Amino acid sequence: MSPERAHPPPATTPDALEQQAAAVAPLLEDSPEDLYENAPCGYLSTLMNGTLAKVNGTLLSWLGYHREELVGRRRFADLLTIGGKLYHETHFAPLLQMQGEVHGIAMELKAKDGARLPVLVTSVVKTDAAGEPKLIRTTVTDARGRRAYEQELLRARRAAEEAHREAERSREHLHEVVAVLQRSLLPPSLPPVPGLETAAHYHTASPDHLGGDFYDLFSLGGGRWAFCLGDVCGKGPEAAAVTSLARYTLRAAAMNDADPEAVLQTLNSVLYERYAGDDPRYCTVVFGLLEAPGPDDAGFDITLAGGGHPPALLLRDDGTADFVHTPGGVLIGILPRPPLAVIHTRLEPGDTLVLYTDGLTEARTPTGRYGDERLLAHAADLAPSGAEPTVKALTDLLESFGAGLDDDTAILALGVPARAHENPTSSPC
Amino acid sequence: MDIRRRNNVSVIGPEDGPVVVLAHGFGCDQNLWRLVAPALAVDYRVVLFDYVGAGRSDLTAWSAERYSSLDGYAEDVLDVCRELDLRDAVFVGHSVSAMAGVMAVAKEPGRFGRLVLLTPSPCYIDDGGYRGGFSREDIDELLESLDANYLGWSGAMAPLIMGNPDRPELGEELTDAFCRTDPDIARVFARTTFLSDSRDDLAKVSVPTLVVECAQDVIAPREVGAYVHAAIPGSRLVTLDATGHCPQLSAPEATVEAITAFLRDGER
């Protein structure tokens, strides 16, 4: 025998088991009667019409009733609060009748003195040999501790639900604010330019964030028009503030001196001075001037300057397409006086000039970034194409990127309507 | 919209039989008719459905706005009747559904030939001389009872109740799924049911009507049965020797007998 063993081994032989049972029997006092009457839970039996037929001592003591006050006189539902009665009649009793048993339903019993006892109720229908329901057996367990715990859970759940609703409301409000601010950064509509078709599209990457892209088109008087499209670094309110500043600076500067180089230098100075220090803010931008040369010329002369912005696209009447690069190419707002230069080009009838931000070319596709090459090829496929259909085609392209498009994107197209094509067979040549 | 799917409509019984529509009340779904529907379906074409929000209806079609008034439930009844192109149907409404039926008859009388109101109550709350049996506080207590069993509802129940049986591991819980409802929906239905007052609608009932009450019913006591009977011109009242609010479960044979006797009378 091992010296470490402090207790005798568990009885395993039938003889030993019997001896052990005999030894503890006096301690248990477990007559079936006693087990029922003094069980650690309430027991009750009811007839099928609900009348109480038997109640154990535990439940009587919980409720403060004498047996004769309940048995044969009251129904189970009478022991419930009125709300519990309603629940019993609409949920518990129908379920019990349908399934023959119902488990763990939370109810409140009303004690004789009016006190309320939270309990969990489980009922089973007892049937006779023929399967006819004869009576309902119910156990009732004290659920005070559990109910307090559950009420905490419920309260936490309600608080979480309320917080969730509040968050949803805040989010909706934010979306409204963002949408209103975003609209304020763009012209509500493009002004009509005689002899020119115009179209624009703005894709907002997220309703939660203000985008930093912008475009504009406005009259300078005397048959001259200015247009611009740009992209402020970053997102959110800070970027939006810069966007607003940039757009109105461009407008004001153009009114003073419409030369695109001068306009961009003014914008550069404003950004450079305003955001000096450890919070530099800069943007890429293309700014241009449109001039209708005269009544006999349907084309438009264009003067263009750019700062660090992707090249414009020119879709020609003859079905070709090319990038229009602007020299210089330094971001606006970084250097005290960036090198900038203007270029001159022309829009002939049937030509369309497209400005865009890099959301378009940076979009992710299954084969990598969309990129300049594919954009140019797409433009060549489209050409010749007016402003409206070109913007529509590019909008469709943006949509086709789906989740691959995660940046804001602005598109502005200016097109001179094509001449009515003459029938070649009737040509005098 | 697919009304048959939305309201989980099922139709049993002979195709050429007179149509009987069975409408469940608050607390459960069309399962409540399981003991009487087969007996009725011997001679009648029986239409069963779940109100949107109950049973296996399409929960996505539920809105607090529509189902916060009995009118929304009456519209469900009419949607089902229109979908099946019913005329002169017998409408059997249990509990609050009885009043939804009363409203539906007033809106489109041509669709209904007879009305059976099973343990109806036009108003549950005491009001002046009227005894509905409950006070406003009692109804608040019921809402608490619903909340107390809120935890019995789990997110896992939702797909089951929404009729996505492609999760077999939930099959075991199916028995307990009877009458389970999203707690938010149950709350709205409870409020709509127990705070409604349709007493003024009773006098407008224009079709032969049977009122069936139970001898012992906590929710619709006999005074209420007598009130409904008196308020509906020419109605008939039958008192079943039954306990509880759901005689279609506690006394199915007597319930069927009361309904068919009333209908046979009409055929004569």
From TrEMBL, chain A:
Q: Which PROSITE patterns match?
A: PAS, PPM_2
Instruction: Specify the PAS domain's residue ranges.
Output: 28-80
Q: Which UniProt keywords apply?
A: Coiled coil, Hydrolase
Q: Please list the coiled coil stretches.
A: 146-177
Key word Lyase present in the record?
Answer: no
One of the record's GO molecular function terms: phosphatase activity
Keyword hit for Hydrolase: yes
Matches recorded under PANTHER family: STAGE II SPORULATION PROTEIN E, STAGE II SPORULATION PROTEIN E-RELATED
* Protein name stated in the entry: Histidine kinase
Organism equals: Streptomyces lavendofoliae
Automatic annotation (TrEMBL), chain B:
- The superkingdom of the source organism is Bacteria
Q: Which GO terms describe its molecular function?
A: hydrolase activity
Tell me the keywords, alphabetical order: Hydrolase
SUPFAM superfamilies per UniProt = alpha/beta-Hydrolases
Which Pfam families does the record associate with it?
A: Abhydrolase_6
Keyword check for Hydrolase, yes or no: yes
Residues in AB hydrolase-1 domain copies = 20-258
Q: Which family does it belong to?
A: Belongs to the AB hydrolase superfamily.
Descriptive protein name: Hydrolase
Native source species? Streptomyces lavendofoliae
